[in-house]
Design a protein that fits this description.
Length: about 100
C-alpha cells in the first residue's frame, strides 16, 4: 500500500497483513482491532470454505482451505515463523530459530 491509510478497508487490510506477516503492532487499540478483524475473518473464511465445498472447482477449494488455515494460524502458509504455532512458545524463540 502506498501513502496513508484513508479508509476502513485499507486499515483492515493493513492490520491483517501485519498480523499474518508476524509484524508486531505496539498500540493497544490496534491490537484490539486486529482481534476483532480475525474473529470476523475466521467466520468469513469458514463460510467461504463451506460454500466452495458445495461445488466449486478444485483450485478455488484449495485456495479457500489455505486461506482458512492461514487465518486460523494467524500466519501465512509459507512463513518462516512456523514455530509460532506451537503452544507456549512466545515470540522470541521463533525469531532466534531463524537466525
Amino acid at each position: 500500500m502506498e501513502g496513508k491509510i484513508k479508509s476502513k478497508d485499507m486499515k483492515v487490510n493493513c492490520l491483517l497483513q501485519a498480523a499474518l506477516g508476524s509484524l508486531p503492532v505496539q498500540e493497544f487499540s490496534l491490537n484490539q482491532d486486529t482481534q476483532k478483524i480475525f474473529r470476523s475473518a475466521s467466520r468469513l473464511s469458514k463460510c467461504l470454505l463451506e460454500l466452495k465445498m458445495l461445488g466449486a472447482g478444485f483450485q478455488s477449494l484449495l485456495n479457500s482451505v489455505l486461506l482458512h488455515k492461514c487465518i486460523q494460524a494467524r500466519l501465512w502458509e509459507n512463513s518462516k515463523h512456523v514455530a509460532r504455532q506451537l503452544d507456549k512458545i512466545g515470540t522470541l524463540l521463533p525469531k532466534s530459530l531463524l537466525e
